[in-house]
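User: Let's play a game. I give you a shape written as C-alpha coordinates, and you guess the letters that built it. Ready? Here's round one.
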Protein backbone atom coordinates (compact mmCIF):
# COMPACT_ATOMS: atom_id res chain seq x y z
CA UNK A 1 0.00 0.00 0.00
CA UNK A 2 2.75 2.45 1.05
CA UNK A 3 4.70 2.00 -2.22
CA UNK A 4 1.52 2.61 -4.23
CA UNK A 5 0.86 5.90 -2.41
CA UNK A 6 4.33 7.17 -3.32
CA UNK A 7 4.13 6.18 -6.98
CA UNK A 8 4.11 9.88 -8.11
CA UNK A 9 7.67 10.28 -6.72
CA UNK A 10 8.91 6.72 -7.30
CA UNK A 11 11.79 7.78 -9.57
CA UNK A 12 12.85 10.55 -7.19
CA UNK A 13 13.02 8.10 -4.27
CA UNK A 14 15.15 5.67 -6.31
CA UNK A 15 17.51 8.55 -7.07
CA UNK A 16 17.58 9.43 -3.36
CA UNK A 17 18.60 5.88 -2.38
CA UNK A 18 21.53 5.98 -4.82
CA UNK A 19 22.63 9.39 -3.57
CA UNK A 20 22.58 8.65 0.16
CA UNK A 21 25.64 6.38 0.06
CA UNK A 22 27.54 8.81 -2.18
CA UNK A 23 26.84 11.61 0.26
CA UNK A 24 28.20 9.87 3.36
CA UNK A 25 31.56 9.30 1.61
CA UNK A 26 33.64 8.81 4.77
CA UNK A 27 37.37 8.39 4.23
CA UNK A 28 37.49 6.06 7.23
CA UNK A 29 36.29 2.61 6.06
CA UNK A 30 34.80 1.70 9.46
CA UNK A 31 32.75 4.90 9.62
CA UNK A 32 31.60 4.36 6.05
CA UNK A 33 30.66 0.74 6.76
CA UNK A 34 28.71 1.76 9.88
CA UNK A 35 26.72 4.42 8.01
CA UNK A 36 26.21 2.24 4.93
CA UNK A 37 24.93 -0.56 7.17
CA UNK A 38 21.90 1.57 8.10
CA UNK A 39 21.14 2.76 4.58
CA UNK A 40 21.34 -0.84 3.33
CA UNK A 41 18.69 -1.77 5.90
CA UNK A 42 16.31 0.48 3.99
CA UNK A 43 13.48 2.08 5.90
CA UNK A 44 10.33 3.61 4.50
CA UNK A 45 11.91 6.98 3.58
CA UNK A 46 8.73 8.72 4.76
CA UNK A 47 10.54 11.94 5.71
CA UNK A 48 12.29 12.57 2.38
CA UNK A 49 9.12 11.53 0.55
CA UNK A 50 7.19 14.26 2.38
CA UNK A 51 9.88 16.84 1.48
CA UNK A 52 9.69 15.88 -2.21
CA UNK A 53 5.88 16.05 -2.19
CA UNK A 54 5.81 19.48 -0.51
CA UNK A 55 8.39 20.64 -3.07
CA UNK A 56 6.09 19.55 -5.91
CA UNK A 57 2.91 20.87 -4.30
CA UNK A 58 4.37 24.37 -3.83
CA UNK A 59 5.89 24.67 -7.30
CA UNK A 60 3.83 26.19 -10.10
CA UNK A 61 5.25 23.73 -12.65
CA UNK A 62 5.37 20.77 -10.20
CA UNK A 63 9.17 20.60 -10.55
CA UNK A 64 11.52 19.58 -7.75
CA UNK A 65 14.73 21.62 -7.70
CA UNK A 66 18.24 20.25 -7.06
CA UNK A 67 18.23 22.01 -3.65
CA UNK A 68 14.95 20.34 -2.68
CA UNK A 69 16.29 16.92 -3.69
CA UNK A 70 19.30 17.68 -1.51
CA UNK A 71 17.06 18.77 1.39
CA UNK A 72 15.20 15.44 1.16
CA UNK A 73 18.54 13.61 1.37
CA UNK A 74 19.72 15.77 4.29
CA UNK A 75 16.45 15.01 6.11
CA UNK A 76 17.01 11.26 5.80
CA UNK A 77 20.64 11.55 6.94
CA UNK A 78 19.62 13.57 10.02
CA UNK A 79 16.90 11.01 10.81
CA UNK A 80 19.34 8.12 10.39
CA UNK A 81 21.91 9.81 12.66
CA UNK A 82 19.27 10.18 15.36
CA UNK A 83 18.39 6.47 15.09
CA UNK A 84 22.03 5.45 15.62
CA UNK A 85 22.19 7.49 18.84
CA UNK A 86 18.71 6.35 19.97
CA UNK A 87 19.72 2.71 19.61
CA UNK A 88 22.83 3.25 21.73
CA UNK A 89 20.85 5.02 24.48
CA UNK A 90 18.03 2.44 24.45
CA UNK A 91 20.42 -0.51 23.99
CA UNK A 92 18.37 -1.84 21.04
CA UNK A 93 19.94 -4.82 19.31
CA UNK A 94 17.98 -4.67 16.03
CA UNK A 95 16.70 -1.90 13.76
CA UNK A 96 14.89 -2.32 10.42
CA UNK A 97 15.36 -6.07 10.71
CA UNK A 98 19.17 -6.01 11.00
CA UNK A 99 21.61 -5.64 13.89
CA UNK A 100 22.05 -2.07 15.09
CA UNK A 101 25.34 -0.25 14.42
CA UNK A 102 26.58 -0.62 18.02
CA UNK A 103 25.70 -4.33 17.98
CA UNK A 104 27.50 -4.89 14.65
CA UNK A 105 30.53 -2.75 15.50
CA UNK A 106 30.64 -1.32 19.05
CA UNK A 107 29.17 1.57 21.04
CA UNK A 108 32.11 3.89 20.37
CA UNK A 109 31.85 3.41 16.59
CA UNK A 110 28.06 3.87 16.73
CA UNK A 111 28.35 7.20 18.59
CA UNK A 112 31.03 8.38 16.15
CA UNK A 113 28.97 7.22 13.16
CA UNK A 114 25.95 9.17 14.44
CA UNK A 115 28.10 12.27 15.03
CA UNK A 116 29.61 11.88 11.58
CA UNK A 117 26.19 11.69 9.91
CA UNK A 118 25.05 14.81 11.78
CA UNK A 119 28.24 16.59 10.65
CA UNK A 120 27.74 15.50 7.02
CA UNK A 121 24.13 16.69 7.05
CA UNK A 122 25.26 20.08 8.42
CA UNK A 123 27.88 20.43 5.68
CA UNK A 124 25.36 19.68 2.92
CA UNK A 125 22.85 21.98 4.60
CA UNK A 126 25.34 24.86 4.56
CA UNK A 127 25.92 24.19 0.85
CA UNK A 128 22.27 24.91 0.07
CA UNK A 129 23.31 28.58 0.39
CA UNK A 130 20.02 29.55 1.98
CA UNK A 131 20.50 30.99 5.46
CA UNK A 132 16.81 30.77 6.43
CA UNK A 133 16.63 27.09 5.52
CA UNK A 134 19.90 26.45 7.40
CA UNK A 135 18.46 28.13 10.52
CA UNK A 136 15.21 26.17 10.27
CA UNK A 137 16.77 22.72 9.79
CA UNK A 138 19.77 23.11 12.10
CA UNK A 139 17.44 23.79 15.05
CA UNK A 140 16.15 20.23 14.61
CA UNK A 141 19.49 18.79 15.77
CA UNK A 142 19.25 20.74 19.05
CA UNK A 143 15.61 19.60 19.34
CA UNK A 144 16.72 15.95 19.14
CA UNK A 145 19.06 16.47 22.09
CA UNK A 146 16.34 18.31 24.03
CA UNK A 147 13.87 15.47 23.38
CA UNK A 148 16.38 12.80 24.39
CA UNK A 149 17.19 14.60 27.67
CA UNK A 150 13.49 15.08 28.46
CA UNK A 151 12.82 11.42 27.76
CA UNK A 152 15.76 10.35 29.94
CA UNK A 153 14.66 12.59 32.81
CA UNK A 154 11.17 11.07 32.72
CA UNK A 155 12.10 7.39 32.56
CA UNK A 156 9.73 5.41 34.81
CA UNK A 157 8.12 8.69 35.91
CA UNK A 158 4.42 7.78 36.30
CA UNK A 159 3.59 11.47 36.94
CA UNK A 160 4.34 12.42 33.32
CA UNK A 161 1.38 14.17 31.66
CA UNK A 162 0.07 13.89 28.11
CA UNK A 163 1.30 17.46 27.51
CA UNK A 164 4.83 16.46 28.60
CA UNK A 165 4.64 13.44 26.29
CA UNK A 166 3.48 15.54 23.30
CA UNK A 167 6.23 18.09 23.90
CA UNK A 168 8.89 15.36 24.05
CA UNK A 169 7.42 13.75 20.91
CA UNK A 170 7.66 17.07 19.10
CA UNK A 171 11.36 17.38 19.88
CA UNK A 172 12.18 13.75 19.06
CA UNK A 173 10.02 13.18 15.96
CA UNK A 174 7.79 16.00 14.74
CA UNK A 175 10.41 18.78 14.70
CA UNK A 176 12.35 17.25 11.78
CA UNK A 177 9.23 16.61 9.66
CA UNK A 178 7.82 20.09 10.39
CA UNK A 179 11.10 21.90 9.66
CA UNK A 180 11.83 19.97 6.46
CA UNK A 181 8.29 20.66 5.15
CA UNK A 182 8.83 24.37 5.83
CA UNK A 183 12.31 24.20 4.25
CA UNK A 184 10.91 22.68 1.03
CA UNK A 185 8.36 25.53 0.80
CA UNK A 186 11.08 28.11 1.57
CA UNK A 187 13.18 26.83 -1.34
CA UNK A 188 10.23 27.60 -3.64
CA UNK A 189 10.15 31.17 -2.25
CA UNK A 190 6.66 30.64 -0.81
CA UNK A 191 5.31 33.35 1.45
CA UNK A 192 5.46 32.97 5.23
CA UNK A 193 1.82 31.91 5.51
CA UNK A 194 2.35 28.98 3.11
CA UNK A 195 5.61 28.02 4.87
CA UNK A 196 3.80 27.95 8.22
CA UNK A 197 0.92 25.88 6.82
CA UNK A 198 3.32 23.18 5.71
CA UNK A 199 5.21 23.46 8.99
CA UNK A 200 1.95 22.72 10.84
CA UNK A 201 1.17 19.86 8.46
CA UNK A 202 4.58 18.30 9.23
CA UNK A 203 4.31 18.95 12.96
CA UNK A 204 0.91 17.27 13.39
CA UNK A 205 1.77 14.45 11.00
CA UNK A 206 4.97 13.82 12.99
CA UNK A 207 3.09 13.77 16.29
CA UNK A 208 0.51 11.32 14.89
CA UNK A 209 3.34 9.16 13.53
CA UNK A 210 4.98 9.01 16.98
CA UNK A 211 1.72 8.19 18.77
CA UNK A 212 1.02 5.33 16.33
CA UNK A 213 4.61 4.08 16.80
CA UNK A 214 4.01 4.03 20.54
CA UNK A 215 0.78 2.06 20.08
CA UNK A 216 2.62 -0.40 17.82
CA UNK A 217 5.27 -0.86 20.50
CA UNK A 218 2.53 -2.51 22.55
CA UNK A 219 0.53 -4.31 19.84
CA UNK A 220 2.85 -4.62 16.82
CA UNK A 221 5.42 -7.12 15.65
CA UNK A 222 9.17 -6.61 15.30
CA UNK A 223 8.62 -6.45 11.52
CA UNK A 224 6.16 -3.55 11.61
CA UNK A 225 8.21 -1.67 14.22
CA UNK A 226 11.73 -2.22 12.91
CA UNK A 227 12.82 -2.84 16.52
CA UNK A 228 11.82 -5.33 19.27
CA UNK A 229 8.20 -4.93 20.49
CA UNK A 230 7.79 -3.65 24.05
CA UNK A 231 11.23 -2.02 24.05
CA UNK A 232 9.89 1.44 25.00
CA UNK A 233 8.14 0.02 28.02
CA UNK A 234 11.23 -1.94 29.17
CA UNK A 235 13.33 1.22 28.85
CA UNK A 236 10.90 3.19 31.00
CA UNK A 237 9.60 5.44 28.20
CA UNK A 238 6.05 6.14 29.34
CA UNK A 239 4.10 6.80 26.15
CA UNK A 240 0.49 7.90 25.60
CA UNK A 241 -1.13 4.41 25.88
CA UNK A 242 0.66 3.88 29.22
CA UNK A 243 -0.29 7.35 30.50
CA UNK A 244 -3.95 6.69 29.59
CA UNK A 245 -3.84 3.19 31.13
CA UNK A 246 -2.50 4.61 34.41
CA UNK A 247 -5.75 6.60 34.74
CA UNK A 248 -7.71 3.32 34.75
CA UNK A 249 -5.53 0.76 36.51
CA UNK A 250 -3.49 1.60 39.60
CA UNK A 251 -1.55 -1.69 39.60
CA UNK A 252 0.52 -0.29 36.74
CA UNK A 253 2.06 2.15 39.26
CA UNK A 254 3.62 -0.79 41.12
CA UNK A 255 5.18 -2.24 37.97
CA UNK A 256 6.57 1.13 36.88
CA UNK A 257 7.86 1.99 40.38
CA UNK A 258 9.89 -1.24 40.48
CA UNK A 259 11.02 -0.55 36.88
CA UNK A 260 9.71 -3.90 35.55
CA UNK A 261 12.40 -5.73 37.53
CA UNK A 262 10.56 -9.07 37.62
CA UNK A 263 10.70 -11.27 34.55
CA UNK A 264 6.94 -11.15 33.88
CA UNK A 265 6.43 -7.43 34.68
CA UNK A 266 6.59 -6.15 31.10
CA UNK A 267 4.10 -8.78 29.88
CA UNK A 268 1.80 -8.00 32.82
CA UNK A 269 1.91 -4.29 31.99
CA UNK A 270 1.06 -4.93 28.32
CA UNK A 271 -1.81 -7.19 29.38
CA UNK A 272 -3.20 -4.48 31.70
CA UNK A 273 -2.92 -1.82 28.96
CA UNK A 274 -4.87 -4.06 26.56
CA UNK A 275 -7.68 -4.43 29.10
CA UNK A 276 -8.14 -0.66 29.43
CA UNK A 277 -9.36 1.89 26.87
CA UNK A 278 -5.83 3.30 26.64
CA UNK A 279 -5.06 2.07 23.11
CA UNK A 280 -8.33 3.53 21.79
CA UNK A 281 -7.65 6.85 23.53
CA UNK A 282 -4.13 6.97 22.08
CA UNK A 283 -5.56 6.20 18.65
CA UNK A 284 -8.07 9.05 19.04
CA UNK A 285 -5.20 11.37 19.96
CA UNK A 286 -3.34 10.35 16.79
CA UNK A 287 -6.49 10.95 14.72
CA UNK A 288 -6.81 14.46 16.20
CA UNK A 289 -3.29 15.29 15.00
CA UNK A 290 -3.97 13.77 11.56
CA UNK A 291 -7.04 15.99 11.29
CA UNK A 292 -4.98 19.03 12.29
CA UNK A 293 -2.41 18.10 9.61
CA UNK A 294 -5.14 17.87 6.95
CA UNK A 295 -6.65 21.18 8.11
CA UNK A 296 -3.25 22.83 7.65
CA UNK A 297 -3.30 21.82 3.96
CA UNK A 298 -6.68 23.55 3.76
CA UNK A 299 -7.49 22.30 0.22
CA UNK A 300 -5.47 25.16 -1.26
CA UNK A 301 -3.25 22.94 -3.35
CA UNK A 302 -5.42 20.79 -5.64
CA UNK A 303 -2.68 18.65 -7.22
CA UNK A 304 -1.45 15.06 -7.25
CA UNK A 305 1.40 15.80 -4.80
CA UNK A 306 -1.00 17.32 -2.27
CA UNK A 307 -3.42 14.42 -2.63
CA UNK A 308 -0.49 12.10 -1.90
CA UNK A 309 0.31 14.09 1.27
CA UNK A 310 -3.30 13.48 2.36
CA UNK A 311 -3.07 9.76 1.55
CA UNK A 312 0.12 9.56 3.62
CA UNK A 313 -1.89 10.82 6.59
CA UNK A 314 -4.31 7.89 6.20
CA UNK A 315 -1.41 5.44 5.79
CA UNK A 316 0.11 6.57 9.10
CA UNK A 317 -3.03 5.78 11.13
CA UNK A 318 -3.73 2.60 9.16
CA UNK A 319 -0.40 1.07 10.25
CA UNK A 320 -2.23 -0.24 13.33
CA UNK A 321 -4.52 -2.51 11.32
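Assistant: Ready! My guess for every position:
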Amino acid sequence: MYTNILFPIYEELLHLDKNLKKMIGAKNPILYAAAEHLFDAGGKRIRPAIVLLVAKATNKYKIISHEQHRLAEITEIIHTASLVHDDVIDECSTRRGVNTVHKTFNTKIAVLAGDFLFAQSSWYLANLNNLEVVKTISKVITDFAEGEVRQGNNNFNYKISIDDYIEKSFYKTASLIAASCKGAAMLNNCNENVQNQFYLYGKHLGLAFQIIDDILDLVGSNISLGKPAGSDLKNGHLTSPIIFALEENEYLYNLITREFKNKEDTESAIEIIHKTKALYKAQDLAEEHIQAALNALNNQYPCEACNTLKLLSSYITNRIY
